[in-house]
Amino acid sequence: MATGAWLLGRRPEAHHAEEEKPADPMPAPGPDPDALGAREGAPVRADRTPRMATPAAAAPAPDEEVLAGIRAHVRSDPRKAESLAREARVRFPNSPHTDEWDALLVDALVNQQSIGAARSETYYYYDHHPAGAFTAHLFGLTGVHPSPVGPGPH
């Protein structure tokens, strides 16, 4: 028996056919799969480290594709960006990207020099996204203030 091989974590080769056994049920030395975030039922390699899921090319969700199109066209083709933003509003009303594409719609309208429509869409934005991430940007772009919230004269 080769003792050096066993100390290095390798199993010595069986010399006879009758000595061959199925793989050792004990895991080979190595990282603990639980420490690496392995889930129950996740594929595990022989060295017991979890296999990382690596999709070849994860396709973006349809609403993310629309958002990318709006971003790409907001300056170069603001009419197309406007069309995409309005379409997204109808097709994906519950998307987490509604805040951004509603703001980009205002940008596209400003880039078309449709200031009245941009101001109207800014009011729409404030109504639908009261704590929106683009509130300050739209105020600076259009001068439209969000409606005050809370007690007191309005």
Provide a quick synopsis of the model:
The chain has 154 residues and is mainly alpha-helical.
Fold and architecture overview:
This protein is mainly alpha-helical and 154 residues long. It has a domain at 62-142: Serine Threonine Protein Phosphatase 5, Tetratricopeptide repeat, CATH 1.25.40. The protein contains six helices and no strands. It has helices at 3-7, 62-73, 78-91, 98-111, 115-128, 135-142. The longest helix has 14 residues, at 78-91. The protein is globular and about 55 Å long.
Task: List the SSEs and their pairings.
Blueprint: H1 3-7, H2 62-73, H3 78-91, H4 98-111, H5 115-128, H6 135-142
Helix pairs in contact: 2-3, 2-4, 3-4, 4-5, 4-6, 5-6
| Overall pLDDT metric | 76
CATH fold call of the domain at 62-142 = Serine Threonine Protein Phosphatase 5, Tetratricopeptide repeat
The chain-level structural class is mainly alpha
Strand content: under 5%
The backbone outline, from C-alpha atoms, is globular
The oligomerization state is: single chain
CATH architecture of the domain at 62-142: Alpha Horseshoe
CA-CA gap between termini: 89 Å
SS element count, helices: 6
What are its keywords?
154 residues; globular; Serine Threonine Protein Phosphatase 5, Tetratricopeptide repeat; mainly alpha
